[in-house]
Design goal:
The complex is a heterodimer of chains A (205) and B (185). With 205 residues, chain A is mainly alpha-helical. Chain A is 55% helix and 2% strand. Chain A has helices spanning 7-17, 23-33, 37-51, 61-66, 71-74, 85-121, 144-148, 154-160, 172-187, and strands at residues 125-126, 138-139. Chain A has a two-stranded antiparallel sheet with strand order 1-2. In chain A, helix 1 (7-17) packs across helix 2 (23-33) and helix 1 packs parallel to helix 3 (37-51). Chain B has 185 residues and is an all-alpha fold. Chain B has 2 domains: 1-104, Rna Polymerase Sigma Factor, Chain: A (Orthogonal Bundle); 119-185, Orthogonal Bundle (Arc Repressor Mutant, subunit A). Helix content of chain B is 69%, strand content 0%. Chain B contains 9 helices and no strands. Chain B has helices spanning 13-21, 25-45, 52-65, 76-99, 106-113, 123-133, 137-147, 153-160, 164-184. The chains are: A mainly alpha (205), B mainly alpha (185). The A-B interface holds A 14-15, 17-20, 42, 45-46, 48-65, 67-72, 74-75, 78, 80-81, 84 and B 20-23, 25, 28-29, 32-33, 36-37, 39-41, 43-45, 52-53, 56-57, 60-61, 64-65, 67-68, 116, 119-120, 124-125, 127-129, 131-132, 143-144, 146-150, 152, 175, 178-179, 182.
């Protein structure tokens, strides 16, 4: 058997096998095959090779699809299809309403808290440096940094007390008095302290 | 558009992709159903008999995750073959590392393909399998993509990342080897 030299026809044999030829090309190849034993043999080889591939396992399509995430999950922020938009608008409107109402409530509460904290700012206890350094603490205004320390419980409150006199100079009685006062400060609520009466002068605030 | 068995025009891959992007999961089912067996055949013919379904599944998961990068310049199937082939190469590299062997030569990969023993029952198919065993991995990929999958040289070049001319040469060398093998049997 002579080998065929028509390379153009030979190139088209796999396409004939896979039905990828147009009508004209297919008729031309079939006409050639009718008179060329070499190409018929080659086509038979190709057909055998193609049929040998049927032993690939069958794929469970549903199982594969279950592993594929949705497009929205893969690409966040993609525009939803048209039929989703009315639902999205309703959800967006509800969310906006919640934000506005919730924000108003929070703002109102915040104003009340600010008002209270402004009042309490003026009522921080403080030991001031009296001339004899042996007097109990008096009330004094503290700065905002000290105010910020109030968030931490006892330790921060202790820092808020500005001891400007030397403790060593206090008498035992004064020290006990001072410690009692400090205990009372620890017991005070952080936002609304009770008025404390100074012991030495009887000044009330 | 090709008519479906029901007489309705068959949706193109791009139409199904757009439907899936719009939230229609049935479009994904159609796409997977349309291409999964071709991917399985390619994997099996390339020697990836074990774990073929997992490989096909991974191919689709990866493909759907990056569908935005698919421009439709090639067919979807060609693009899927490209992804699947990369996964197969990754697998082989991982296998080599796990076995801690010397780098695998083409002859070693040919023996991997020999794991198909007993799976192809009929004599003619057994002969074909042996003839494919005699090919290099690249020749086998080109040959099966051309004959079993019906890809053009241009598409094969895209899958393999080389030129049409190289694909053509690999095909003809493979065809000559297979014909000689079958003639000598």
């Amino acid at each position: 058997m002579n080998e065929c030299t028509d390379s153009e026809i030979q190139e088209m044999l796999p396409d004939l096998l896979n039905r990828a030829l147009g009508d004209d090309a297919r008729e031309r190849v079939e006409a050639h095959l009718a008179r060329c034993e070499s190409c018929r043999e080659e086509l038979e080889v190709l057909r055998t090779v193609k049929s040998a591939a049927v032993f690939a396992p069958t794929i469970d399509v549903d199982r594969v699809v279950r592993q594929i995430p949705s497009y929205k999950a893969i690409i966040p922020g993609v525009e939803a299809p048209a039929w989703h938009r009315p639902v999205q608008l309703l959800v967006a409107a509800a969310a906006a309403l919640i934000i506005i109402v919730g924000g108003s409530v929070l703002a109102t509460r915040h104003n009340v808290r600010v008002e209270r904290s402004v009042r309490t700012d003026t009522l921080e206890p403080r030991v001031v440096d009296n001339s004899n350094a042996a007097l109990p603490p008096k009330w004094a205004r503290v700065d905002s940094q000290q105010r910020a320390n109030r968030g931490a419980p006892a330790l921060a409150q202790a820092h808020a007390l500005a001891l400007t006199a030397d403790v060593d100079g206090l008498s035992d009685r004064s020290l006990v008095q001072l410690m009692n006062e400090m205990d009372r400060f620890d017991a005070l609520p952080s936002t609304e302290p009770d008025p404390v009466i100074s012991v030495d002068s009887g000044d009330s605030l | 558009m090709t008519p479906s068995p029901e007489g309705r025009p068959e949706e193109t891959d791009m139409e199904l992709i757009n439907r899936w992007k719009a939230g229609d999961t049935r479009a994904a089912t159609r796409l997977v159903g349309r291409h999964s067996q071709a991917l399985a055949r390619f994997a099996a013919s390339a020697g990836e008999w074990q774990g073929t379904e997992e490989l096909v599944q991974d191919t689709f998961v990866r493909a759907f995750a990056s569908l935005d990068s698919f421009r439709g310049e090639s067919t979807l199937r060609t693009w899927l073959f490209t992804i699947e082939r990369r996964l197969m190469l990754d697998r082989r590299r991982a296998d080599r590392r796990s076995r801690e062997t010397v780098p695998v030569q083409e002859s070693d990969q040919v023996s991997e393909y020999g794991a198909l023993d007993g799976l192809i029952a009929e004599e003619a198919q057994e002969r074909v399998r042996k003839s494919l065993d005699a090919l290099s991995p690249t020749q086998r990929e080109v040959f099966t993509l051309r004959v079993q999958q019906g890809l053009s040289y241009k598409e094969i070049a895209e899958v393999l990342g080389n030129t049409e001319g190289a694909a053509r040469v690999h095909y003809h060398n493979a065809l000559r080897t297979v014909k000689e093998f079958l003639r000598d049997e």
